[in-house]
Amino acid sequence: MKEANIGKERFYRRYGVLLSFIIIFSVLALTTPGFLSLSNLTTVLRQISINGILAVGVTFVIITGGIDLSLGSTVALAGVTAALFARQGGDALALPLIAGITTGLVVGLVNGLIVTRGKVAPFIVTLGMMTILRGTALVVSDGRPVSNLSNAFNAIGGGDLMGIPIPILVFLAVVVVSHVILDRTVIGRYVYATGGNEKAAYASGVDTDRVKMFVYVICGAFAGLAGIVLASRINTGQPNAGVSFELDAIAAAVIGGTNLSGGIGKVTGTVLGVLIIGIINNGLDLLNVTSYYQQIIKGVIIIGAVLIDRNKR
Amino acid sequence: MRKYFNGLHPAASLLLLSLAFAFGCNTKARQAGKPYRIGVTMLSLQSEFVVNVKDAMEKYASNDSVELLIVDAERNADKQVQQVESFIARGVDAIILNPCEVEASSPAVDRARKAGIPVVNVNSETKSTPDAFVGSNDEESAEIAIEHIAKLTGGNGNVLMIEGYIGQAAQIKRTSGAERTLAKHPGLKVLAKQSAEWDRAKAMSLMENWIQVHGDRIDAVFAQNDEMGLGALQALEQAGLKNKVKVVSIDAIRDALGAVKEKRLDATVYQDAQGQGQGAVQAALALIRTGKVEKTQVLIPFQLVTSENVDAYLNRR
Amino acid sequence: MGDLLELRNISKSFPGVRALEGVSIKVASGSVHALMGENGAGKSTLMKILNGIHRPDEGSVILEGRERVFSGVRDAMEAGVSMIHQELMPLPELTVAENIFLGKEPVLGRTGFVDFRKLNARASIVLERIGLDIPPERRMKELSIAQMQMIEIAKAISNDAKVIIMDEPTSAITSREVDVLFGIIGQLKADGISVIYISHKMDEVFRIADTITVMRDGRVVGTRRAEELDNDELISMMVGRSLNALFKKRVTALSGERLLKVEGLEGDHFTDVHFELYKGEILGFAGLMGSGRTEIANAVFGLERPHAGRITVEGKTCDMGSPRQAMDHGIAMVNEDRKMNGLVLTSSVAENMTLSSLTDLSTWIFVDHARETEVVKREMLRYRISAPEAGSKVVNLSGGNQQKVAIAKALLTKPRILILDEPTRGIDIGAKAEIYSMMRELADSGMGIILISSELPEIIGICDRVIVMNKGRVSAELPGEGIDEETILRHAMV
To answer: Of A278, A313, B72, B93, which is the most exposed, with the fewest CB atoms less than 10 Å away?
Structure first.
């Protein structure tokens, strides 16, 4: 009896999110015409890639017990910066890419420095950065969308490689790299240890400040990448893009089993969380549910998925 | 680091620093020697159209002897009321209000009038009546767009409507204008309508999802602003459907005019930001100088922009 | 005199620890029954059962001839069992009378308002009964600790207590106040109330107790009438022969090679600390809690920056800026309070064990899983860590196994100096024995070990040399043979 219980518990711990995903997927497949088609599923993957990149990045931060609320604004600033460089040449590609990712890196660096050196709570730091970066994006772009971007740049969001849309490939690359870092590397171990018990990790010789710097920088860099993908997808750098993107990203990580108090979380879980949010958005549009109800249903499903996750513990 | 802040609270020093920064940035607006000062509160300087109205005001004001104090209400009516209160306290000669909301921004008008300061509403309305209104009738813009769709499709076809942020005045009026006009064309059938919150990326995702359900049956898309129209356009182009589907949107922002010129976007509806901005400052000056205006309602008409007349609009910018 | 209270054959287990095993005690009415034993002997668990905080797994509580099961503190109190805690919990802003009658204030008619006149009058009666001259209107915060204690006793009396448990009641009061307290206890006896008196202080126990029960490792060693016992006999009952068997004596002679030298170390909680540690030596740090022992260890291990002083490891002066630097100099530490400072509870046995030595077990930036698994399995066998598998979360392990994981983690850094801060707190006797023999083996292999402990038998049994701390200063350095509890306590407290 006890043995069976442990087995059941372990099954839920490992597969609880997967179970939620399968349930929601099956319901949508049965009720929604057109949902199961290959082209629709490709569409879903393309649409989730931006939230996916952000959610994987913020998973790192949440595992250390931190939070990043500046994601959405970073997306806007990086998108605008990249777009400014993509506008200048007819074929510009490398420069905008470097500019966008560097923007994200620098934002992460600043977040990390204030959190570690200034000993300010991450919630406060990134809340402040959220408005600072939004303002910066408006200043840099003069409050207008930056358009007329090079074809090469626009191809990131719109093009495909061997039939697979490039945003999906970018997302996949982010997932693989992040999974390897968290699961296989020394720094990955330190990330879990820092979030699980910072004092113990420090006493065990882990440079916890450096670990925190690392997670904010990687989260910022991914946000920069997401900004590039978004800007090229809509062919403009929008200073007011990405509002509340951080909330979807955090929701995805939490649905995927990442613990907001730190120490627990997996990239695979976050990917499932992203997929759950993605298929809900897609399915509700296909069913032509009015936006009033869409908001209610999304909220209910987010809480429901986390409740299932909670019950298994 | 900590050592240097001894004696001064860190937050206080940061505050001082940011204030110094803010004053540095503000010098442009503080030109001395102008006889009239007009307080201007704008809906949101994150919206390109509103920025265009503001630019037109500044341009016109620089010709005349008037100083504009421009603030951003960031779509927050409560903040807008506070801004008007501080204009009153500073004793401006007139106030131009670009309202956030019909009801909630009304107290701003009431307070200014009570203080004896003339108020001009620009672009959209409030429940309280100001001294003058300069703007356009949003319902008209949707009428023009739908009439154009009817013309392009010969009065028969399936239409998708992408709405703005639900509950805002522009969305309500553009939806009612569109629905009234659609009723006149029984051959036009609405397949679906959904909000994309004025956002290009959201409209693109929405259109992608609609293509999955409705696919070949789509004949036309009406988007309530250009941002969403451009998003829908991009999704259609990627799906290889653009040559079959007509897209018409509203506002005539720079990107949209470019797309019309390239014959990608079928049409946009020009809302005359320049006319509105200029008209608002003119009305305010008239009220300051003579205490009255010729017309309390100046309606700047919307204009349809297609590839035939687009060059004229591109040159205005 | 009949038995007022009987605890019959009580057993209680917590996850991983058998706290009580077949404990039986009889308390006569109107008597003072002392309960003695070292930390972790099971006294407080037993009292928590009597007080309704814990339920026994087996056995029964019989009060006035009736078997009772208490559902909580309040339930026990109503049945006549009250406890005066070591840390008092009065409400400082309320008056003496309000504290005594908290939750059962006399009410004015049906209004719901407190009848203060009646309240104060009743309080006066209770206070008079134990001969206490404190006005009932006085605020609690104006009283001394001893007076607060007496108010707690008054409160127990007002509850018609038949048994009053006093946990280390004299730990924070002066000797004159002790006299007053003992006067009150005499009064209680005369009224037929029984007192269970928990204390480490032998002179007090002999002064006041009628009967003495000694506990060790969750069992009763024996119950005697106080006049039948003397000091020596009591100590041998408390420490027991079995404890001596736990400690293995050194097999090799000390080489006299110096590993660590600390000079003039000064920090927030200690000043002017000098000491040396030699190869193969186990050096004990004794002293009361808060005497600066842990803080000194933290300074040596780079967890806290000292204000002044010099730390020399094997002849080299070292800057201990962080634990990582200390580890690079060959120092490892197992922290006090393993759940707070020692282990990452959300991670697995393997992840915790290799956390400090991960760079040795990796190729470039990648953890070498095969090698890690091999090392972890080896260490689990060596220290007999019982966990379902290397991937089990440490949170599910018993205290002893958790501590062994923490020790294995420290040892995997291959230190020459090992600091152990309270390594046996809260773990069972079997795990303790294993840790003691592990320490001896490590010392015999040449490691220098610093043991910080509040358990004197442990310090006396295993250390080659003992440094006694008192209020942040080294008050004595006691060499080798002939260290005893009394000497240590004298230096620690005076």
So the answer is: A313
- The full length of chain B comes to 317
Residue A271 lies in a domain: no
Question: CA nearest B284: which of B73, B36, B31, B30?
Answer: B36
The range of the structural domain enclosing residue A220 comes to 45-247+258-265
Same domain, B11 and B49: yes
Please indicate whether, in this complex, the C-beta atoms of C346 and A197 are within 8 angstroms of each other.
yes
Residues of A in contact with C335 (CB under 8 A): 200, 203
Q: Does any CB of chain A come closer than 8 Å to the CB of residue C342?
A: yes
Residue A293 touches chain B, beta carbons under 8 Å: no
Q: Is residue B124 domain-shared with residue B151, that is, in the same domain?
A: no
CB atoms within 10 A of CB B187: 11
Residue B72's domain is classified under what CATH number? 3.40.50.2300
- Residue labelled with tokens 């296909």: A286
Query: Which tokens hold the place of C5?
Result: 């209270």
Residue B227 domain-assigned (yes or no): yes
Instruction: Return the residue in A204, A210, A261 with the most chain C beta carbons within 10 A, the one to mutate for interface testing.
Output: A204
Tens of pLDDT along chain C (494 residues)? Answer: 478 999 999 999 876 667 899 999 999 999 999 998 876 678 888 998 998 888 999 999 999 989 998 988 888 988 999 988 766 667 888 888 888 888 778 888 777 788 888 889 888 888 888 778 888 888 888 888 788 888 888 888 888 899 999 988 887 677 778 888 898 899 899 989 999 999 877 788 899 999 999 998 789 989 999 999 887 788 778 766 555 667 777 777 788 899 999 999 999 999 999 999 999 999 999 987 778 999 999 999 999 999 999 999 999 999 999 999 999 999 999 998 888 889 999 999 999 999 999 999 999 999 999 999 999 999 999 998 988 889 999 988 878 889 999 999 999 999 999 999 999 877 766 788 889 989 999 999 999 999 999 888 889 889 999 999 988 999 999 987 778 887 888 888 77
Give a yes or no: residue B15 inside a domain.
Answer: yes
Phi-psi region of C261 (alpha: psi -120 to 50; beta: other; left: phi over 0): beta
**B78 shares its domain with B89:** yes
Residue of B200, B234, B317 to mutate when probing chain A, most A C-beta within 10 A: B200
Residue A310 inside a domain? The answer is no
Q: Which residues from A are below 8 Å from C327, CB to CB?
A: 205
CB contact under 8 A, A291 and B194: yes
Note whether residue A229 is domain-resident: yes
CB within 8 A of A255, min separation 6: which ones? Answer: A17, A20, A272, A273, A276, A277, A302, A305, A306, A309
CA–CA dist B171, B176 (Å, integer): 8
Examine the domain organization and report whether B25 and B93 are in the same domain.
yes
Q: Which of C200, C204, C172, C201 is nearest to C185 (CA)?
A: C204
Scanning every residue of chain A, which has its alpha carbon at the shortest distance from the alpha carbon of B196?
Answer: A291
- Please name the member of B46, B201, B253 whose beta carbon is closest to the beta carbon of A234: B201
User: Which residue from A minimizes the CA distance to B167?
Assistant: A292
How many domains, in total, are found in chain B?
Answer: 2
Determine the structural domain holding residue B12 and report its residue range. 3-136+273-299
ipTM of the prediction: 0.90
Asked if residue A209 belongs to a domain, the reply is yes
Chain A residues whose beta carbon lies within 8 Å of the beta carbon of residue B212:
34-35, 37, 39-40, 43, 282, 286
For residue range C123-152, list pLDDT tens digits in order: 888 888 877 888 888 888 888 878 888 888
Number of domains composing chain A: 1
B210 and B260 housed in the same domain: yes
Neighbouring chains to A with at least 3 Cβ pairs closer than 8 Å:
B, C
